[in-house]
Amino acid sequence: MSDIIQLLPDHVANQIAAGEVVQRPASVVKELLENAIDAGATNIKLLIKDAGKTLIQVIDDGKGMSATDARMSFERHATSKIQKAEDLFNLCTKGFRGEALASIAAIAHVELKTKTPEEELGTCIKIEGSKIVSQDFIATAKGTSLAVKNLFYNIPARRNFLKSDTVETRHIIDEFQRVALAHPEISFLLHHNNNEVYHLKGGNFRQRIVAVFGSKMNEKLVPINETTDILTIEGFVAKPEFSKRKRGEQFFFVNNRFIKSSYLNHAVVNAFDGLLEQGAHPSYFLYLTVPANSIDINIHPTKTEIKFDNEKALYAMLRATVKHSLGQYNVAPVLDFNRDANLDTPYHFKSTSKTASVPKISVDPDFNPFKESNPKDTSNTFKREKQTESWEALYTSVDTSQTTTESLFEHQEAEKTKKTFQIQRKYVMSLIKSGVVLINQSLAHQRILYEQFLESITVKEANSQQLLFPVKISFSSAEIEMIYTIKTELENAGFSFDEFTKDSITIKGIPVSVTESKINIILEELLNEINLEVPDSSFSHFDIMAKSFAKTLSIKTGTLLSEKEQESLVNDLFSCKEPSVSPFGKATFKTLTLLQIDNLFNS
Ligand code: ADP
Ligand code: MG
Asked: How much is the pLDDT for 372?
């Protein structure tokens, strides 16, 4: 047999390598921003078109490249940042693998313009799928501009795999925020489709955090500061009452690099011990500085996971420092004297805790859409003229197999006997011909609201109520950008907007089933859902939106329902298209036949 092993051509090798480094437009953003920082830039601009699918461009005022370096920079393993293996253990740059530009150039159309401060003329190089198309001398500003167009143009499978623009934009904004938070002294600009999303001026950590997350963040921050031989910790945690129901604003930076670490996260969460409601996640922005030779960054291609020499000690110090600061800010509960001595730190707590009070996390009192109190209250979904007939029609014509639920109920009850019962403020029991049906009130209501929203969103006939006084809500720029990308869908759902500014949105109309006091939470939850990202391309925003609204607005376990409300719930549930499951796939009701009940007694 003849020999069969060949070396892969460079462009193929590069395409394969690109798979590791470049998962999506946001990965390109990260690499280019980091290169600009490594080049010593003080001003960095990021320009995005169509969630990065059309264009990702980073313009910096850093040190630029000579013509030869410009050409070299696209070679695989070409880097100016390390020379020998030992350098790996003393890194102070973001990059060092020399792979990013080679990888990106293998799977996109790339245009590089760069000039060093010393030279008169700069260099312009165009590359498509690793092939140099042109190289010219050009007049250009000092620094580097790298434009990446049509990402994955030559790997359709990867391109098709990209998520919706909303999701990809979210990823880009995440990367941008991480880099911007890690380098508050550098000024950053982000434009998406020619809209300015962020304009961050150089400043300190606090100013940067507030600029990124909106002015409402300022009052939430508790400063953290500690210096020991092996570690400096700076930054902020958010007061426990501002913790989130979803993980979100949790940032660790180690030597100015954003990293993920569930171990260190655990240390912080642990420091909040007793201060957080169950299921709540604290927000934090923590900047750790350790000797460069005490960490290994080279364990992950995207460099977001690192290995610490001295993990246990870091854990202990981080936990103690955060706990200490929370205590100083009078937000910690009484000191726990039973604390694990192994986790103690070299310094002593100041006992300022005498006056410490247990903070309360205020929980929204449960919204009850069934409440009949206010006749003008349009939030009552069960009172508004429901298109029960149309739902029934839908339901019978679409799925005949389910029509049985309709005849499930006794029809002869003209006499006024009690037909429904509420059990433990959680279930509604209703009598049916063959026995009883047990309904989970919260899940059932989710199903009802979900179908109502889905209908009003997709039928595009917004059931909107105009607000007497438009409501202005502040959001971070990133949140506003996200809301902007789903503006049309929100309008279909019944929202109407007055003004989008850089840090607020003015809302003048809302869906009929939403109360004014819920606008904030409903939009916040929606952003959370979108961030969680599960959707593949077959899922529309409509669906995410309807699910999110239904979840936020549904009556919860623990809500007492009047008999009338119970009956409405039962009727509305069984006029749904898919009454048996919640929008998240959980069973909404179970039936118990007389036979099954009999069997309970016969065994
Ligand atoms: P790495 O960053 O790991 O060195 P890259 O492929 O990202 O690898 O970049 C290769 C080289 O190109 C860098 O080492 C650097 O010398 C040069 N380079 C890349 N981007 C810039 C930039 N914005 N300004 C100046 N030099 C750059
Ligand atoms: Mg790099």
From this structure: 40
Ligand 2 centroid to Cα of residue 51, in Å, is: 21
Mean of the pLDDT values across residues 234-255? 86
Indicate if ligand 1 lies below 6 Å from the C-beta of 113.
no
Q: Which of ligand 1's atoms lies nearest the C-alpha of 146?
A: 23
If you average pLDDT over every residue of the chain, what do you get? 81
Q: Is 348's pLDDT higher than 60?
A: no
Least confident of 81-90, 172-181, 198-207, 417-426: 81-90
One fold for 207-328 and 442-558 = no
Q: Is the CB of residue 81 below 6 angstroms from any atom belonging to ligand 1?
A: yes
**166: closest CA among 415, 535, 501?**
535
C-alpha to C-alpha distance for 321 and 412, rounded to whole angstroms: 69
Topology (CATH) of 207-328: Ribosomal Protein S5; domain 2 (3.30.230)
Q: Which ligand is nearest to the CA of 101?
A: 1
Domain segments of the chain as ranges: 10-200, 207-328, 442-558
* Residue among 158, 164, 175 at smallest CA distance from 535: 164
**Residue 457 confidence class, pLDDT cut points 50, 70, 90:** confident
| Tens-place pLDDT, residues 62-82 | 999 999 999 999 988 888 887
Ligand nearest to the CA of 122: 1
Is the CB of 187 inside a 6 Å radius of any atom of ligand 1? no
Provide the 3-class DSSP secondary structure of residue 410. coil
Reported CATH class of domain 442-558 = alpha beta
**What superfamily would CATH give domain 10-200?**
Histidine kinase-like ATPase, C-terminal domain (3.30.565.10)
Q: Ligand 1: does its nearest atom lie under 6 Å from the Cβ of 100?
A: yes
Q: How far from 7 is each of 11, 97, 546, 574, CA to CA, in Å? A: 11, 21, 52, 65
Q: Identify the nearest ligand to the CA of 98 by its number.
A: 1
CA-CA distance, 310 to 411, in Å (whole number)?
A: 72
> Has residue 370 got a pLDDT over 60?
no
Q: Is 188 in the pocket of ligand 1 (CB under 6 A)?
A: no
CA distance 286 to 223: 10
- Higher pLDDT: 110 or 526? It is 110
CA distance 85 to 100: 19
- Distance (Å) from CA 143 to ligand 1 centroid: 12
Q: Which ligand is nearest to the CA of 39?
A: 1
**Alpha-helical regions (H) of 41-108:** 67-72, 100-106
Q: What is the pLDDT of residue 215?
A: 85
Going from the Cα of 204 to the center of ligand 2, the distance in angstroms, rounded, reads 25
Q: What is the pTM of this model?
A: 0.67
Q: Is 579 in the pocket of ligand 1 (CB under 6 A)?
A: no
Ligand 1 in contact with 61 (CB < 6 A)? no
